[in-house]
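G., the chain you wanted modeled:
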Amino acid sequence: MRGTALAAALGVVATLCLPGVAVAAGPGPDRAGSSASGASAGTGGPVEGTVRRLALEPKGTTEATVSAHGTERFGLMGVSWKDAAAEVQGKIEARSRNAVTGAWTQWVTLEPLKAGLDGNRPGARGATEPVWVGAADGAEVRVSGGTAALPAGLELDLVDPGTAGRDGAAKSKPGQGAAASGARAAAAAVAPGPESTAPRPDVVSRAQWGADESLNNEGPIYLAGGKIKALFVHHTAATAPYECTDSAAIVRGLHVYHVKTNGWRDLGYNFLVDKCGTLFEGRQGGVDQPVMGAHTYGFNSESTSVAVLGDYTNAGASPEALEGISRMAAYKLGQYDVDMNGTTTLTAGATQKNYAGTSFTAGQPYQFRTVSGHRDGFNTECPGHQLYPQLDTIRKSGPAAQLKIVSVNEKPVAPGGTAKTPGQLVVGFSTSTAAQLLSSFELLVDGAPAATVAGDATSAATMLSLGSHRIQIRATAKNGKVSTSLPVTVDADVSDVKYVPVQPKRLMDTREGLGVPQAKVGPGGVVALKVAGVQGVPAYGVTSVVLNVTATNPTEAGHVSVYPNGTVRTSASNLNFTPGQTVPNLVVVPVQDGIVQFYNSAGSVDLIADITGYFLASGEGGTHMNVGPKRVLDTRDGTGGVPTAPVGQGGVLDLDLSAVDGLPAPDGLTAVVLNVTATNPTQCRSTRPARPAPAPRTSTSPPARPSPTWSSSPW
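Predicted structure as tokens:
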């Protein structure tokens, strides 16, 4: 069972995201001569950070200072005081000394954080936002300009985030202590989070960035409703330019500061991203889970967060950082069918005003963008004046949103639902993303593409083999991003399909306008022929038809493909022709909507179609199962396990069909319908028919053609 939000449901505010974001010195070498973090994304184990506290010296009742030269090296600093509810009047300013150059930074202003950011916690201290200073060995703080007495216990907190591999810094065992182990076990016991329509991005785990899990002995809190409705964007650890190799140390520093200085249960943000686009797991509880964070006061109970490392008051975030936010927003919101370019309704957990002056009353609903800035819910400049307008770019940068299958063979179906079919499959789908932003949709059958349609399509079709299949729709946006619908299960029962032979009847003749317009089919042209309910063919229940298709009077060499209506034509041909020839061939084609399509690849050609039989979902006749068209033999490339070579005079090829995917076991297979193509012949001779082994070869050849001909297959 997931924990309740308790008092934290009232909202736990983001850390380090208030007006006047501080800017400190850039990174410098640490005591080992590398950057302050000394680590890239992964550390190889938990790293123990430390906090050194220096008391501020009072200068009367309203001013205080501290000056510390030659300190142990640290990377992050802030100011705290004993009573979390107390307010500091006046200005808190700080500066640091670079450990390598000895140069002091400019004075920067540290903004106090609101009390109760992570709920009402015993022992919580009042504190400012911290700043990342890189490798520093000196600091100064001054508090001045106020008219009221300063709170008791003012201290300068210097955080050493530790460096992976440094002697004494890395812990030998992760999460020391029974309490920490219990918290991890509780988190691990939670069932996997919901599947997302967007890919899960690569995330540097807490173990990889070196989280000291012994600090987290309470375990995570999950959203009471179990659903994320919005994502808030922040900036944090205001800093001058940093190297991305410092990112893990910055995250560790925030973790230590939030827990040891602020007295919070854990790092406040759900996720963090650096300027290189690397994503980091923040608050404990699971990347795939709806974890309650401490990020947006009053609105944490229905949202998640991403904080960008750095200060974006005067400059925007990098394209890589924006892409990192986009990938995480698409994944987390895609878990709950939320459009990252949409709106949502959040219930306020506190009475307050946001940065724009909008008033919120606790318990009342308010509309938000699904990707919002911290300032939209709280009175802060965060995520910075330059990052905030970039949020609109992020909202529009995702894959197809709210992608879902809505129907199977025109019958409604919900994600995760089940449907049945005798073989034909038409999948209807929807997305909230505009068609002009989409490139294509793919129909996936058991994870493999079975059909592709354009970005403005709302359905796709194919034929299924016997059995249960996992059906999904995969959308590719024009920006290249991909999303995949939640699956539905479709059970195909084709075992009772029966074949009914009929006296041959002509259904189509483009020379006379029978069944289709009276005109040759041009290059790339398609004609649609209605077969159900015509010439004695039943109007309903027909799954496939057997047609004798003839191409006559072609002007160029080409081929004809016959395929079900509403499906994507494959590259396989049903018959090939050369100029001036008349070529027939037998075609078995599934029927969709009672219609089949005829495609001509090149030149102009007249097409004729005679029906010789059809298949029904039930009734008298032989059982038939559709599995194609599927290429099972090609002597040009060895498909089917045959030699990669032309068949010589008198030659015989044995094709083993037992390995063909989709066919039943050999003892349940009595016959197959094959479209056999001869190409690149050296002499004009007839071929012998395909025959079962080990039956003797007959002396008969295929049905006589008006003028035998061969041509190259189109692929």
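The first strand starts at residue 50 and ends at 55.

Shout if anything looks off.
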